[in-house]
Amino acid sequence: SNNTILASVHNDEVLLFDVETLDRFASFSFERVSAIEFSPNGKLLAINKGSSIQVRESLRLIEIESLTVLDQNALADDRAVDIAWSPDGQYIAAPGPDGDVEFYRTSDLSVKNTLYGVHNVDITCIDFRYDGEYIVTGDESGRYAMWNSSGYLQGVEREYGEELIDCKFSPDGQDIVLLGSKGNLMSRTITGAENHLVKVDGANQILFSDIGTRMHISCDDDEFRGLLTYDYQDFNEIKRTTFFHKTKDIAFIDDDFGRLQSVYVAAGTGQLAVYLRESIPIGFNQPG
């Protein structure tokens, strides 16, 4: 939450890095990790890993201060690629073992309630609204739905027309942004009206700036590999950050104006690439 620790996964290990020094200071062994997510206050790291007939668990929690794996565990879908924390950190939403989405209590990872009756294929994206009142879910068939915090479907499920890769609430909570496997990126109001639609070849992830005015889309295409930055109000492209490698996942730190300062990229090579904003000293290239 304070941009000091970066978590990554490689070869059945969860690794923690110091953002300033880039030194690795902790590692934890888990088999077949499919998703990781820090809690909103940064005190816990949720892990979704592989399960087996002998070990019927997939969700685990790491306490960051003590660097220990907590005892509580739960069996979710051990292949789930996305899990989400509620904004207050009280619950984790994850695909359940039977295909629905379940809310797990952080205290003991018991099931609070289940979002059922919509998804019958693998769920690919989950996101809470900033106030925790609503959650959006999407799956590989292109079906998506919005639910309230009590687990009730809001309206009806909708079809996107292609596999959903990512789905997010806008920072103000008024829109849902959807990204499909064919590169179609759409913003809709929570009532269903379309705002904007653009096609971004190779797009695979939606990220928002802290102030919410900028939207970043990671791309991995033959024509462009990197991060596209859009003005969210009109979907106009305002910046390109080019990478020389594949893009599997991205985390970033921005400033008070939404400008990127540091970008951390999982490149699919067992390494993390780090991009830093160029800093030019006062007086550089000036006479005197």
Estimate the global geometry from the Cα principal axes: globular
Q: Report the C-alpha radius of gyration, rounded.
A: 19 Å
Low-confidence stretches: none
Strand content: over 45%
Mean pLDDT over the full residue set: 93
Q: How does the major sheet shape up?
A: 4 strands, antiparallel
Question: Terminal Cα separation, in Å?
Answer: 43 Å
- The sequence of SSEs as H and E is EEEEEEEEEEEEEEEEEEEEEEEEEE
The computed structural class is mainly beta
Helix content: under 10%
Number of helices: 0
Strand arrangement, major sheet: 4-5-6-7
Q: How many runs of DSSP E, i.e. beta strands?
A: 26
Fold and architecture overview:
With 288 residues, this protein is mainly β. Helix content is 0%, strand content 52%. It is built from no helices and 26 strands. The strands form seven sheets. The protein has a four-stranded antiparallel β-sheet with strand order 4-5-6-7, with no helix packed on it. A hairpin with a 5-residue loop joins β25 and β26 (272-276).
